[in-house]
Model the fold of this input.
Amino acid sequence: MDDLLRDFLAESAENLAQLDHDVVELERDPSNAELLNSIFRTIHTIKGTCGFLGLDRLEAISHTTESVLDLLRQGVLRVSPEVVSDILRAVDVIKTILGGLEAKEQEPVGEDSLLIGILETWLIGEPKPEDQAWEPGLLEPLPPQVATASLAAMPAPSATAAMSVTDAILATPSGQSGDHSEIAISTPHVATGVDAATAVAASSLRVSVAVLDSLMNLAGELVLTRNQLLELCARQEGSPYGVPVQQLSRITAELQSVVMKTRMQAVGSAWGKLPRLVRDIARETDKQIELELRGAETELDRQLVQALQDPLTHMVRNSADHGIETPAVRRAAGKPEVGTISLNAYHESGNVIVEIVDDGAGIDPSRVRAKAIERGLVRREVAEGMSDSQVLRYIFEPGFSTAETVTHLSGRGVGMDVVRSNIERVGGTVELHSARGQGCTVRVKLPLTLAIVSALLVNAGGEAFAIPQSCITELVRFGGTERASIADLHGVPLFRLRNELVPVIGLSALLSLSTVTGEELKTLVICHVGSCRFGVVVDEVVDTQEIVVKPIGRRVRHLTCYSGCTILGDGRVIMILDPAGVAAMGGMQTAELRSTDSETRAAEVASVPSEAYLLFDGGSTAPQAVPLSRVARLEEVPTDRIEHADGRMVVQYRGGLLPIVTPPGVTLTSGQSRSVIVFTEGSSSFGLAVNEIRDIVEDTMQLELAPSRPGVLGTTVVAGAATEVLDISYLLARSRGEVS
Amino acid sequence: MVATTTRELVTFRVAEQWFGVPVLAVQEVLVAQRVARVPLAPREITGLLNLRGQIVTAINLHRRMELGTDPEGAPMNVVVRDGEELFALVVDEVGDVVPVPDQAFESVPPTLDTCWKGACAGVVQRESDLLAVLDPHRVLNDSTTSS
Done:
């Protein structure tokens, strides 16, 4: 490509990204002369350069646009939504032409006479012809006076054609003969491929991304070589190379951080298109939406900025189309008519956080619940016992949409799951919080860079692996005598981590490596991916290290359990595990497993007051629990003191008879002494005979499984074990002989 | 004597069979390297090795060409470049670079099994044996044994 043309394209792409933003801004602030001047200058520059390069089509459209802008600048024309819309259309055409130039090095064929004609109506000061001609639908022929005034030289478009402004760019066939009876609308919108930085300081230099990428690679190699040198020196006491190698090490680290900086891009460049998007949606849906952008200067690796772009556009579109209500609805709800969508980007402990907050209607949990049941993602009984925040997680299931109407803007149900997988692919996480009637917040967390990650080196099945630290929440040693902490549910190992059951994935088994069976101590690496928490069993934890992520070859790329490989200080190659892939391979895909989500749990703990429970072995297969507040006393009673009278079990107790019941389904077997839990309900008391009192725990007691037999309220997880919660009223009734 | 064009082939042995690949496809030949296994990879993938900071995918030709399972003794690596990626063909022994006149290339016999037919580009008759000429690109990609 011609150097001159390439420079022109790069510069224009940068300016145009800013232009959309500026034009929308101008609509809000029509009196901003500085903004108007900036827009005028951009178009003027394009016009000037393209005349020079012999780009006639581009020159014609930018010339007319410039003229309209000039009138606005002089104050002859007032800034109105209509004129802004026309200017934006012209900007779209300019982008299409530039896109074509970039792809084919020549102007795409097309005629813009109609658009130019419409722009020219602004120039001759005529009242604007029907704006609706531009809306999706039928395109009306121009009024005759316009045609005679300015369109004499062009073929009169006589027929009508259906068009969609958002999807297509208007272009008439380039032939000059008047017999064209149709207007062809086919040129797809070609996005300008160059990522534009926002304001560029005068002291900056344009460097190609390829150069930066190779610089990054070289810096990575240097880090590896440095690591090797450091290892060599560490082995030799008093090596004369010690000091210079230390020096080299320090410089390498500095170099690496500077090189990283060159790849940093402001997150604002990923949301350059959003003001325009929101404006268009607002106009189309008759809503009033304010878009607030904060922290646009927050920097992160350009690869991540790119990865963020589509999910961000999607989420903002969702907020604008589904989240924000119409002014009438908002007024009725006592909210300001103008809805707000705000984007905040900021750094937080080595991560970049991007929040998308809207003050719209929020997501209706009952609709999500109904939809989840309808789609068979969850059983009705389970769904009804779920908290709203648990239910909202289904939003991220593939193909899940609660939109009642599918508009062309959004609501097709290909959405949040794609957003989530895109974000997770680059090591980020997405969380969604919604409050009915108050709006919705989506929080995206991204690492600063992809190329160098801090990793935990582990051994499993005789092989070494690296696990990215960002996913690891804690390490737990187990085995030997503590093997009891692994529970088994239908052949699935679960680890009791404090109060929660965490699914366990044996790495050597998963990767078909030789498993060492023995009683030796192993380590459980607790990982957190998305809303999923799980433990990965490894034989040994070796070290933590900053590693350079290298892509793996295409023959092994299909293995989702690896995100790449790296070269260690001693030159060894090891695989980097992708915790998300490992989880998926371990069968961690069903929504049920996500109920171990600790953050949601934390939220629940905050909202549901916890209560103390008495945990005991009632003779049933599972541990059982009753609320401690209902328990009066605990007694030890030898079995032979339990007497049978009138078909009931009683024990002589404090000068009276205390009815004794057993947990549902359990019959009393003779043995040594029994623990009896004494309950007092009003004036009557009864005792529950159990094998052993276990513990007292604080828990919120969210019943996760519905009861299967009378006397049991439900099943929940207490202290990491499935536990039955008993129904005291039922037991009382039984002690009185009211139920058998 | 008629002037002919010749092609140079790097020859190597896998089990009892000698193979050739065009010398231009070969970047270098390495002695046995430390290879990192890739669990769950297709069975002919020996693993990954580090060639001066570049990651090379090693392919076990014994398995790829269905000639028994593993090389005997210390294997050699014939490093070939395919597009942007480097691969190492793990073989038993590397022989000479031999010039082969164009007309000596004979087409792959149609009766050959699918695995070999997919990987071979031709056959060259030598005094004592047949040299199977491999198409590196096809050896690296089209595999019946990959999972």
